[in-house]
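hey
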């Protein structure tokens, strides 16, 4: 079952940010840690300029991200990670990957990669950096993007980053933009985003869009209310937003979780709630999320699941 489940009684048109408490991890390392970090590293080795990009001039912010990420990993998983730092000499131990790294904090020459690129290879999260009074995307490592890529979005403002979304949920995005401009240091927040996909491929960056559309076209005629639960995946993004105290930049972290729909729908409450949200989502949003083509069998499947499970519990 998914550890985060953002489906309630109906489609939520609010930005849904919640305070990240000191006990809530900024970075989460779960049972998929090894697999996902190795996958990110493979992608980054194969296409370094596609999955990591940065504008010059944000080194302080990059080092702040590195420090926060490592500290969060250690605080919440002391059995797997260890950081000692006599002065500026940092000693990092990652027991899950069996790695030890020594570097000088703030000295770019002491790391093989830019600090954000290096830190991103220690975590499952995608890490994006925004800066400026009207925050712009200035750097990022994005391996598991859902239908977008750094090629398209680097250097764009928050509003322009959301080009296709802004007109669909305008009040939400206006509120979010103000929120971003005013986010104070020391008060990080998190929110959840959901989608339904016909694949469990983590890397859904734009270079795969044409192939995925082709797969969808082939699968679509065969989707029925009885088999769609085995083909669809619920994809959840746990997103965090943190103002960095020294540079004033904002770290945007995205941890992607997914589970096959029939596993989630085995819980009648979850099947009911997914159905309630999907059936109240505005048509333009369903179109944007790519759900419209399979909306009918999906809703029929969810109704069927709720009914069958209710009957079973009576007998
Ligand atoms: C409070 C903050 C935020 C809110 C409320 C928000 C909201 C949304 C929503 C509703 C979507 C549509 C996705 C879906 O529902 O399936 C979206 C997509 C997206 N968001 Fe955000 N977002 C926030 C922060 C950010 C930040 C900081 C970035 C920086 C990189 C970002 C980049 C994007 C991108 C690139 C997309 C995909 C747009 C596309 O399809 O071209 N978002 N966001």
């Amino acid at each position: 079952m998914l550890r985060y489940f953002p489906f309630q009684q109906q489609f939520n048109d609010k930005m849904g940010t919640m305070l990240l408490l000191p006990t809530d991890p900024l970075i989460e390392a779960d049972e998929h840690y090894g697999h996902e970090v190795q996958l990110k590293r493979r992608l980054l080795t194969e296409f370094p300029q596609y999955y990591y990009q940065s504008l010059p001039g944000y080194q302080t912010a990059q080092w702040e991200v590195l420090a926060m990420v490592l500290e969060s990993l250690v605080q919440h998983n002391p059995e797997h990670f260890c950081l000692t730092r006599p002065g500026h000499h940092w000693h990092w131990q990652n027991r899950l990957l069996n790695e030890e790294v020594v570097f000088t904090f703030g000295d770019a020459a002491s790391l093989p990669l830019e600090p954000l690129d290096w830190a991103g290879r220690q975590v499952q999260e995608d890490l994006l950096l925004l800066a400026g009074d009207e925050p712009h995307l200035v750097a990022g490592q994005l391996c598991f993007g859902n239908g977008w890529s750094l090629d398209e979005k680097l250097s764009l403002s928050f509003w322009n980053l959301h080009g296709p979304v802004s007109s669909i949920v305008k009040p939400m995005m206006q509120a979010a933009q103000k929120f971003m401009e005013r986010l104070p240091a020391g008060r990080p927040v998190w929110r959840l985003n959901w989608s339904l996909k016909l694949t469990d491929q983590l890397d859904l960056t734009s270079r795969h869009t044409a192939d995925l559309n082709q797969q969808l076209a082939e699968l679509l005629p065969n989707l029925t209310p009885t088999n769609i639960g085995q083909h669809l995946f619920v994809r959840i993004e746990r997103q965090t937003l943190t103002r960095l105290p020294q540079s004033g930049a904002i770290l945007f972290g995205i941890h992607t979780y997914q589970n096959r729909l029939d596993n989630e729908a085995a819980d009648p409450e979850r099947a009911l709630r997914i159905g309630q949200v999907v059936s109240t989502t505005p048509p333009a949003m369903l179109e944007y999320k790519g759900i419209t083509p399979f909306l009918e069998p999906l809703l029929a499947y969810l109704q069927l699941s709720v009914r069958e499970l209710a009957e079973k519990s009576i007998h």
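The two ends are 25 Å apart (CA to CA). Residues 15, 17, 128, 130, 137, 147-148, 153, 161-165, 169, 172, 176, 179, 191, 193, 195, 252, 289 surround protoporphyrin IX containing FE (CB under 6 Å).
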